[in-house]
TrEMBL record:
It comes from Deinococcus aluminii. InterPro entries: GTP-CH-I_C/QueF (IPR043133). This is Uncharacterized protein. The lineage of its organism: Bacteria, Thermotogati, Deinococcota, Deinococci, Deinococcales.
């Protein structure tokens, strides 16, 4: 199963009402070598709801699929991938912002990606 196929949506009961949705996900340790991201790291997905909404439980399952991932290894690529997959699933522009605490370095990182649905 691909990671993107884990993302589910639900119908927006009132798509005529302007609705901004923000999901704040607390990131698990994704890299078994560096143990990054460190506890306290978050990923926020923000979008103006259309006909569909991202489903909460599938977001957790989707993010967990990246733990120890063999290809998506750095935070920039991770945020780009999540933003694009979320935009494709919801059918609207999605802004993904990761606020990352890092081990092994004296710095944090903020990565912001804006993605639009592909093939529409």
């Amino acid at each position: 199963m691909s990671e993107a196929s884990r993302l589910k949506t639900i119908p927006n009961a009132r798509p005529h009402l302007p609705t901004v949705v923000e999901h704040v996900l607390h990131l698990p340790e994704l890299c078994p070598a560096s143990h990054n991201p460190a506890p306290g790291s978050t990923l926020t997905l923000r979008y103006v709801a259309g006909e569909r909404l991202l489903e909460l439980f599938s977001l957790d399952t989707y993010i967990d699929a990246f733990v120890g991932h063999p290809v998506v290894r750095d935070m920039e690529f991770f945020v780009q991938t999540v933003a694009q997959d979320a935009a494709n699933a919801a059918g609207v522009e999605v802004t993904a912002t990761a606020d990352v605490r890092l081990n092994l370095v004296r710095q944090g990182q903020r990565v912001t990606v804006v993605a639009v649905p592909e093939g529409r």
